[in-house]
Amino acid sequence: MIEIISAGIAPGLALLSYFYLRDQYESEPVYLVLRSFIFGALLVFPIMFIQYVLEVEKVFTSEFLYTFIAVGFLEEFFKWFVLFFTIYQHVQFNEHYDGIVYGVAVSLGFATLENIIYLFANGVEYALGRAILPVSSHALFGVIMGYYLGKGKFSIIKNRTKWIVLSCSIPILLHTVYDSILLNYFNWKYIMVPFMLFLWWFALHKAKKARIKIFDSRLP
């Protein structure tokens, strides 16, 4: 039991620590990051219940619609909802990169509890594969979500709606592509590897841009 919990938690904490420590100028309060992580974890059970009902009731006859709405939209929208209504207006969200820290925290809270449940059901031998794919992809979706939410908060008023919409819609789209690759392709590994490389590049590029904006704003 301890082995499964440790294997389930470790990748999420490692990724959260990585992005947290990249905040070079003003680290976010640990309690607020932990609160975001817990809020993300609390989303797992209602989302799993809704997904179970949708699957059992066969609401979607199209596999793409199920992937898009029941997985991509449902998971990313509720993570975005938590991020927007608990962090966006918070006084501690005072720099562009902060959105990334909190976006990653919410996403990894969700991914970590989901990972522990999966490992309990299927075995600890899946821990490495889960760390490389589902856990890391959730973290990267969180980076992208937080980046665009930061753009929304620190842009001029007329552009804010655009960035806030993108902070939700781009992660939904990327999550849908990710799950579509897993579900619809027999040789999914040959497509997933370049997709994950792109996802890492895209997310790290956005994180770097957010840090540069902080540096520029601090120049005299």
From TrEMBL:
GO terms for biological process: proteolysis. Its EC number is 3.4.-.-. This is Protease PrsW. It is a multi-pass membrane protein. Pfam families: PrsW-protease (PF13367). One of its GO terms (molecular function) is peptidase activity. It is found in: Cell membrane. Belongs to the protease PrsW family. The chain crosses the membrane at residues 6-21, 33-54, 66-88, 100-121, 127-149, 161-181, 187-204. Involved in the degradation of specific anti-sigma factors. The lineage of its organism: Bacteria, Bacillati, Bacillota, Bacilli, Bacillales. It comes from the Bacteria. Keywords: Cell membrane, Hydrolase, Membrane, Protease, Transmembrane, Transmembrane helix. It is an enzyme of class 3 (hydrolase). The gene is prsW.
